[in-house]
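Renewal narrative, Specific Aim 1. Our central claim is that a sequence can be written position by position from structural information alone. The example that follows is taken directly from our test logs and has not been curated for this report. It begins with the structure tokens describing the chain, in the order in which they were read.
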């Protein structure tokens, strides 16, 4: 697999749009990473993962994900993000 694509999720991210992007990346590279900071963003990320499974399953593609913490720097300030590494099963 080439370098993993990182999609950054915000509280205002539309889960269906993120799911579409996620499904496209999975079809092309077999793996992607979502990063979310805050409860609202984590909620949108989880919904996007669930929706993307529905987009991918008709093509016989199933995904799994592993959540973890990641330290990221935003505007010079270190923040803790939730990282979801998503791969095909």
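The sequence written for that structure reads:
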């Amino acid at each position: 697999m080439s370098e993993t694509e990182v999609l950054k999720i915000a509280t205002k991210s539309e889960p269906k749009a993120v799911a579409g992007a996620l499904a496209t990346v999975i079809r092309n590279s077999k793996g992607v990473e979502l990063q979310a900071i805050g409860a609202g963003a984590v909620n949108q990320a989880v919904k996007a993962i669930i929706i993307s499974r529905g987009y991918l399953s008709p093509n016989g593609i199933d995904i799994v994900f592993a959540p973890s913490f990641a330290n990221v720097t935003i505007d010079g300030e270190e923040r803790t993000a939730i990282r979801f590494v998503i791969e095909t099963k």
